[in-house]
């Protein structure tokens, strides 16, 4: 059985307060985009994980799909499986690729082995693997809050626009992105701001991580500026970076960015 886990972008990202458990409360808009991995699971004699495409760092046991298998096996009598992941979603990009793989793995195992898990139950399992994993269970635009794992549905459809995502040859770690962040309560919530005209988003909707990341990575700051110069209605870094997206009325000519970066026209 094969599924195709997709990426997401963050439209706005406000870090609002530090939690007693050491995490941060935030608010953001998650929006699914059409950059996809391929995930295959088959029965096997022993548990194994292999990958092709982009190189995935870390040990097999650290992979979220493998962690997901062990988590489900605690509650269900699962046979060993062979997991193969073809990695296409850029890593360290703020696109949630690893989280999507984990959530789609839960969905795949539920279907393949007829576990009978409801959407809420799959969401609870996904939440245990990572804050934004839970989003990919239903995989539709949401306002996310708390740790980024509580959701409220929103009506947001960008299909009339052209989204372009640029991934520079830069890796931004979550720790680096959080360094220098000062949590600040918001006056106007993204839940309301997202309903404003897209032409107004530039002055209303921000990503708190840009200030820190742009300071350390001038090339990421430059990509955002280049997208606006190319006619973007709105542009922002996604998540903790390093990718930057632009929303355009028409497909732009960004050949000048393609030489040194990955450019996805969505």
Automatic annotation (TrEMBL):
<dbReference type="InterPro" id="IPR020568">
    <property type="entry name" value="Ribosomal_Su5_D2-typ_SF"/>
</dbReference>
<dbReference type="GO" id="GO:0019288">
    <property type="term" value="P:isopentenyl diphosphate biosynthetic process, methylerythritol 4-phosphate pathway"/>
</dbReference>
<dbReference type="InterPro" id="IPR013750">
    <property type="entry name" value="GHMP_kinase_C_dom"/>
</dbReference>
<dbReference type="InterPro" id="IPR036554">
    <property type="entry name" value="GHMP_kinase_C_sf"/>
</dbReference>
<comment type="similarity">
    <text>Belongs to the GHMP kinase family. IspE subfamily.</text>
</comment>
<dbReference type="Pfam" id="PF08544">
    <property type="entry name" value="GHMP_kinases_C"/>
</dbReference>
<protein>
    <recommendedName>
        <fullName>4-diphosphocytidyl-2-C-methyl-D-erythritol kinase</fullName>
        <ecNumber>2.7.1.148</ecNumber>
    </recommendedName>
</protein>
<feature type="active site">
    <location>
        <position position="132"/>
    </location>
</feature>
<dbReference type="GO" id="GO:0005524">
    <property type="term" value="F:ATP binding"/>
</dbReference>
<feature type="binding site">
    <location>
        <begin position="90"/>
        <end position="100"/>
    </location>
    <ligand>
        <name>ATP</name>
    </ligand>
</feature>
<keyword id="KW-0067">ATP-binding</keyword>
<feature type="domain" description="GHMP kinase C-terminal">
    <location>
        <begin position="198"/>
        <end position="255"/>
    </location>
</feature>
<dbReference type="InterPro" id="IPR006204">
    <property type="entry name" value="GHMP_kinase_N_dom"/>
</dbReference>
<keyword id="KW-0414">Isoprene biosynthesis</keyword>
<dbReference type="InterPro" id="IPR004424">
    <property type="entry name" value="IspE"/>
</dbReference>
<feature type="active site">
    <location>
        <position position="8"/>
    </location>
</feature>
<dbReference type="GO" id="GO:0016114">
    <property type="term" value="P:terpenoid biosynthetic process"/>
</dbReference>
<dbReference type="InterPro" id="IPR014721">
    <property type="entry name" value="Ribsml_uS5_D2-typ_fold_subgr"/>
</dbReference>
<dbReference type="Pfam" id="PF00288">
    <property type="entry name" value="GHMP_kinases_N"/>
</dbReference>
<comment type="function">
    <text>Catalyzes the phosphorylation of the position 2 hydroxy group of 4-diphosphocytidyl-2C-methyl-D-erythritol.</text>
</comment>
<feature type="domain" description="GHMP kinase N-terminal">
    <location>
        <begin position="63"/>
        <end position="137"/>
    </location>
</feature>
<keyword id="KW-0418">Kinase</keyword>
<keyword id="KW-0547">Nucleotide-binding</keyword>
<keyword id="KW-0808">Transferase</keyword>
<dbReference type="GO" id="GO:0050515">
    <property type="term" value="F:4-(cytidine 5'-diphospho)-2-C-methyl-D-erythritol kinase activity"/>
</dbReference>
<comment type="pathway">
    <text>Isoprenoid biosynthesis; isopentenyl diphosphate biosynthesis via DXP pathway; isopentenyl diphosphate from 1-deoxy-D-xylulose 5-phosphate: step 3/6.</text>
</comment>
